[in-house]
Amino acid sequence: MTADHLQNVKADFENSLFWNFIGLQLKEFKEGYVLLALPIQKGFINVRNSVHGGIYASVLDTAMGMAGRSLGFDEVATLHLNIQYLKSVVEGTILSEATIIHQNRNTVFIEGRLKTDDGELLSHCTGTFKLSKVERIG
């Protein structure tokens, strides 16, 4: 993978409205691997006084999609996510890590882990993503 492609993917994600709305931060990014951080905000807390599971899912899906794009593709689309919610959290920073497990021509299987900033596992996720390249007419 070229450094230019990785830089373009990084810019695409960091300039997205969702990324900035939720407050994601990129900690590490290389081909096949992503580590994101998300400082917990009061608006993430649900009626059980913990971070809403939708935040877990969104952060995992974002990291995993970014890992898929790191393989040289212009677009990824989530086909399936399987999330296990293991522990709730109320404050601090959560870390979302994504690693490529298997790739074929059109799809990629990715593992995601959501942890506290001291390494405690909060959630485990696997997902299948469709990969595509954009046709450039020039």
Notes on the protein architecture:
The structure is a single chain. With 138 residues, this protein is an alpha+beta fold. It has one domain: Thiol Ester Dehydrase, Chain A. Helix content is 25%, strand content 41%. The chain is built from 3 helices and 6 strands, in the order H-H-E-E-H-E-E-E-E. A 6-stranded antiparallel sheet has the order 1-2-4-5-6-3, covered by helices on one side. The two termini are 22 Å apart.
CATH class: Alpha Beta
What is the mean predicted local confidence, pLDDT?
95
Q: What's the name of the CATH homologous superfamily?
A: Hotdog Thioesterase
Q: Could you say how many structural domains there are in total?
A: 1
Largest sheet: 6 strands, antiparallel
Summarize the helix and strand pattern as letters: HHEEHEEEE
CATH architectural name: Roll
Strand order of the largest sheet: 1-2-4-5-6-3
Distance between the termini: 22 Å
Number of strands: 6
Helix-strand layout with pairing:
Layout: H1 3-14, H2 17-22, E1 25-30, E2 33-39, H3 53-69, E3 75-85, E4 93-103, E5 107-116, E6 121-132
Antiparallel strand pairs: 1-2, 2-4, 3-6, 4-5, 5-6
